[in-house]
């Protein structure tokens, strides 16, 4: 399948939408929900909309680092990675259209969190809390936001597409699987 200029550029609509949704929801949370409180609970206790400020990254990794190290690790390195992903998206002819959209979703989530860290240097706003019933020792999963969800969901879908889809042939990977003739 021929990759057109439109195929390469149109997925960049997704990062713009993700950054907008991420920043609008974070602004709403800051304006309406007192920090450290649960605003709403859905499906009994399964899903909370709350206001948490995270000075680190997922699972509070890096919370005790000096501010300058945090800026480098949480802003500079991710920004360099986002630039490299954008260059790869534009230049690569090996990606399927689906993989392009998934990489664009990762870029959108990354940029959403970078924007948050640039304008709120001490912390990012997290507000989605999900009960996981003791999974991996957690009663609730670490609170997250739209950008985080975008990175995780599109990252998982990208990995699955790489594992199970051959971009060169445009079909599912079936190496090592013999076809059984139908009788």
Helix/strand layout:
Blueprint: H1 5-9, H2 13-32, E1 38-42, E2 47-54, H3 67-91, H4 97-119, E3 124-130, H5 146-164, E4 165-166, E5 171-172
Antiparallel strand pairs: 1-2, 2-3, 4-5
Helix pairs in contact: 2-4, 3-4, 4-5
Question: Hey, roughly how much beta strand do the residues contain?
Answer: 5-15%
Q: How much helix is in the residues?
A: 40-55%
Sequence of secondary-structure elements: HHEEHHEHEE
* Count of folded domains: 1
Q: N- to C-terminal separation?
A: 34 Å
Strand order of the largest sheet: 1-2-3
Low-confidence stretches: none
Structural class: alpha+beta
Task: Describe the structure in your own words.
- The chain is of the alpha+beta class.
- It has one domain (10-168).
- 50% of the residues lie in helices and 13% in strands.
- It contains five helices and five strands, in the order ααββααβαββ.
- The protein is globular.
Structure in a nutshell:
By secondary structure, this protein is an alpha+beta fold. The protein is built from 5 helices and 5 strands.
Give descriptors for this structure.
single chain; 183 residues; alpha+beta; 5 helices
């Amino acid at each position: 399948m021929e990759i057109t200029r439109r195929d390469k550029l149109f997925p960049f609509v997704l990062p713009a939408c993700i950054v907008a949704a991420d920043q609008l929801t974070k602004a709403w949370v800051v304006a309406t929900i007192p920090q450290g409180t649960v605003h709403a609970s859905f499906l009994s206790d399964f899903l909370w909309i709350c206001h948490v400020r995270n000075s680190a990254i997922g699972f509070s990794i890096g919370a005790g680092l000096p501010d300058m190290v945090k800026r480098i690790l949480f802003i500079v390195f991710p920004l360099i990675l986002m630039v490299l992903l954008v260059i790869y998206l534009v230049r690569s002819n090996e990606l399927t259209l689906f993989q392009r959209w998934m990489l664009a979703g990762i870029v959108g989530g990354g940029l959403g969190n970078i924007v948050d860290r640039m304008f709120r240097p001490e912390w990012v706003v997290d507000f989605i809390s999900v009960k996981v019933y003791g999974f991996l020792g957690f009663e609730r999963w670490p609170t997250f936001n739209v950008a985080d969800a975008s990175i995780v969901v599109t990252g998982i879908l990208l990995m699955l597409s790489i594992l199970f889809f051959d971009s060169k042939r445009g079909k599912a990977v079936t190496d090592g699987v013999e076809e059984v003739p139908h009788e």
